[in-house]
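Review box. Two proteins, two foldings.
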Amino acid sequence: MYAQQVLDFVNSVDCSKIDNVSLWKAAQIQLLFITRDYETCLQKIDVFVKKYSNEKIVTQIEKIKALCIISNQEVGKAIIKEEVKPIILKYLNDERFLFSLGRELEFRNSLPMQWL
């Protein structure tokens, strides 16, 4: 998978030699989500949000966090967990984000009836 190869490259780079470390770390988080390494992705998100809370990219990282939490559940038993609800409410006007959440639930065969 190409995304895994890119992630391997990103992981191999010495961050002390990068000009924009927050962008590099954000790319790493996105690649972890794409490669379905949800546990590591959530760990990196927690560190990222604490360290780079003032960066514009945090909005995207928060959305990835919600998607990770939804995706990191057993097929057929995925729910909208309490920790995802504030993120959903924060980005309620982002149709693409809401669509992505719905698709993740659908992929998990867990689309709640109130979303239909």
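Next protein.
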Amino acid sequence: MWWRVRLSQQLLSTAWEKLNGHARHLCTRLKSHPESSDYLTWRQQFFQRRLRLGLWLGLFWSLIGAVGGLYSVLVEIEELRANVLTIYGDAAIADALRDLIIFYSLAVLVVLGACLVGQKTRWGQRCPVVWFLLFACSLNEFLGQVIATFFQIPLSPETLTFLAIAIIIPVHWRLHLIAQALPIAYYGIVYPAIGLTTLGTTNIYQLYSSGKLVEIAWVCCVSVPCCLSIRTVEAIGNGSSSSSASVSAFGFP
């Protein structure tokens, strides 16, 4: 019997050493290296160009969504009330949803428009981080969550937006991490703290039902690879800039 215990201890020790080695290797790969001035200049210019592109795309997408949402809550309001009554057991939710969609649609369009205008100003060009956070929080449902709180309607984070923003603006991974953490934290911490865990009289939409727990886990699984991939892109870009600078220092074009 003793040899089985000893064998189990050796296997556990070997597995732990391998896991610890992989963790140290990953931390070393993700460790920030000194960033060259050429790379910083390129990243700043690239960031502003892609942010401008993202703002226009976000404004176009939000405009389409606003038209569809307003049509549903204004033209087809009776059908919406019937569906809400069937699903949630309270037709009054349809009126709250109507007011929410109207207010939220206008708020998103105003924020994105203000970002487009503000980015062109002298102060806006010096502080693009502010416009990025406003842009990301307008599209990843964080702004919608804050607004929907006043209408007693919980909203979950928009995971596809995480991926879309990461593809359009693959730099500044820390900003992406902040923008992704805000709606997740609001959904998982703020809603339970204020008691907004149900919608209507039914209990199948409780915040911590199995479906919602899977949804939160999916959001976390999406956000982590996004930030890791952005960090990898930045490391590659920084390495390329450093290599180019080193080659130029030896007189090569």
